[in-house]
Design goal:
heterodimer, A: 136 residues, four-stranded antiparallel β-sheet, B: 403 residues, alpha/beta, Peroxisomal Thiolase, Chain A, domain 1, nine-stranded mixed β-sheet, two-stranded antiparallel sheet, 11 strands
């Protein structure tokens, strides 16, 4: 773990440090990429994977603006699929007004990280999102 | 000479809506007994029972139903397959008949969903419970991901499905999706079994409570209670039945179930497109029909954003042309390709396991010429489609034909 001590990533595919990025498991047989723990490749059933960095900039391929969510989940938020140089990433769009006038299909975005809370041991959890490449 | 065809002999759906005085077995029994009566047979004639229920799948609805309407010792298959549960139950009965294990099968789907609220979401509490952040699950997550890394709730997932189509092909807008709901709510006024039967103006739909842009509440399927059941029969047995039973029997020209083949991004945002297109391709081939031959289509409009993409997936329009196809008026009940003349899931309601048999009921109703004021005149071929996220696609083509 390259994270500074006292920090933990929200998910194990988020790599912290001076240049935060997402990391995928890439099938060494067919190149399919995944973000979760694997038993085998869903595309070719191969069992060998390499960790590869995912581009930190991309384009919004789809989005929604959630106004009603399960209890305890703050709204509104902006789920999206971002195409990072051919690898699709599930994320929220952040640092953007959550309304259709400010979010658009094809919008250029980049990875950003931010604290989501501190536990009873003083360890900070760091989450990620994608923000517009150009300011408002 | 008898063929390997399988026919719908009897079919029924209950009124969809709130049924506080009926439990799930009551609903299943009402649908099953009415389907048996519609087919002119009894539980004693049935050789296999397939029972679908999703939200309480471990309860064994099939055996509970037998204990109320007839314990004849036949095999029961309790099935759960997300929103394709009903279609899966029907297909299970069809497969048993096709395999020659029996001549008559019964498929039932029932669900109690009134007041269920948003489905899925909030899968894990977002706190550390005093233990410190502890990675768990397949993403090694230290906190709940719903709301932090996208959404798990259905309106937001299917909103993205529709928006993605817009990104790929253009032409979509909030207004376009809302007009799809306007059509389905207009259609529902002719369906007394629908949960909601009120026509809604475009303005009302667009100004309704926003759930997940661009889906407002009236663009989402309605949670409700309901059941549907169908009796299927082999061609050989049908030939021995009386002329009226034979006249009303509807041929199952195609019965297909698919899952999603791997595609880039399919584990990031569910791909509801490829498996539907694959199912449609197989079904048209099985039935020997093309999309232009269809007189009506009941497709899985769990959200207005979903209906649009399935115009394309079912090849009702040219690839990429769904927005223009809808704008042409083709899918209204007086158009060239009526879609969801029942009112669709947005107004008829979506009692999950019942849906995949209720849409078959709707198509059969028209093919039998029994649909009353909402009858599509001269309907001979119809298609019923459901999709369960995860994913499973159930697709049936029904044909009016003489046995």
């Amino acid at each position: 773990m390259t994270a500074a001590s006292g920090q933990v990533p929200l998910v194990d595919y988020l790599v912290l440090g001076p240049a935060p990025h997402l990391e995928a498991s890439q099938c060494t047989e067919c190149g399919a990429r995944f973000f979760n723990r694997r038993n085998a490749c869903a595309s070719c059933s191969g069992t060998s994977f390499a960790r590869v960095p995912v581009a930190t900039e991309g384009e919004v391929r789809s989005f929604t603006i959630v106004s009603r969510a399960a209890p305890g989940i703050p709204v509104p938020f902006v789920p999206a699929v971002v195409d990072c140089d051919g690898t699709s990433v599930r994320t929220n769009l952040v640092n953007v007004e959550p309304d259709p006038d400010h979010v658009s299909l094809g919008m250029k975005v980049r990875l950003t990280t931010f604290p989501i809370g501190t536990d009873s041991n003083g360890v900070e959890a760091i989450g990620f999102g994608f923000e517009p490449q150009e300011g408002p | 000479m008898a063929s390997s065809d399988v026919w719908i002999l009897g079919i029924h759906m209950t009124k969809f809506g709130k049924h506080p005085d009926q439990d799930i077995v009551d609903l299943a029994a009402e649908a099953a007994q009415a389907a048996l009566a519609d087919g002119g047979v009894t539980m004693k004639d049935i050789g296999v029972l397939a029972a679908g229920n999703l939200m309480n799948a471990s309860a064994g609805l099939g055996q509970q139903l037998q204990k109320q309407i007839g314990q004849t010792g036949i095999p029961v298959y309790n099935v759960a397959n997300a929103c394709a549960t009903g279609a899966t139950a029907l297909r299970t009965a069809i497969m048993a008949v096709k395999a020659g294990e029996c001549d008559l099968g019964l498929a039932v789907g029932a669900e109690k969903l009134s007041g269920a609220g948003l489905l899925a979401g909030g899968s894990r509490a977002a706190d550390d419970s005093g233990r410190g952040w502890t990675p768990s699950g397949r993403y090694g997550a230290v906190a709940g991901l719903d709301g932090r890394v996208g959404t798990e709730t259905m309106p937001g997932v299917f909103a993205q499905v529709g928006m993605e189509y817009g990104h790929r092909y253009g032409g979509v807008s909030f207004g376009l999706f809302a007009r799809i709901a306007e059509k389905n709510h207009a259609h529902s006024t002719l369906n007394p079994l629908a949960t909601y039967t009120r026509k809604m103006t475009l303005e009302e739909i667009m100004n309704d409570v926003m759930i997940a842009y661009p889906n407002t509440r009236s663009m989402c399927s309605a949670n409700c209670d309901g059941a549907a059941a169908a009796v299927v029969v082999s061609d050989a047995r049908l030939r021995t039945l009386d002329p009226d039973q034979r006249r009303r029997a509807v041929k199952v020209a195609a019965s297909v179930l698919t899952t999603d083949p791997w595609q880039e991004a399919c584990q990031v945002l569910p791909d509801v497109n490829t498996l539907t297109r694959n199912a449609a391709t197989t079904a048209y081939e099985q039935a020997g029909v093309s999309p232009e031959d269809l007189d009506l289509v009941e497709l899985h409009d769990c959200f207005a954003t979903a209906e649009l993409v399935h115009y394309d997936n079912l090849m009702l329009c040219k690839e990429g042309n769904a927005a223009d196809f809808f704008a042409s008026g083709a899918t209204w009940r007086d158009g060239s390709m009526p879609v969801n003349v029942s009112g669709g899931l947005e107004s008829k309601g979506h009692p999950i396991a019942a849906t995949g048999i209720a849409n078959i009921w709707e198509v059969c109703h028209h093919l039998r010429g029994e649909a009353g004021p909402r009858q599509i005149d001269g309907a001979k071929v119809g298609l019923a489609h459901v999709i369960g996220l995860g994913s499973a696609c159930g697709l049936h083509i029904l044909e009016k034909a003489a046995a």
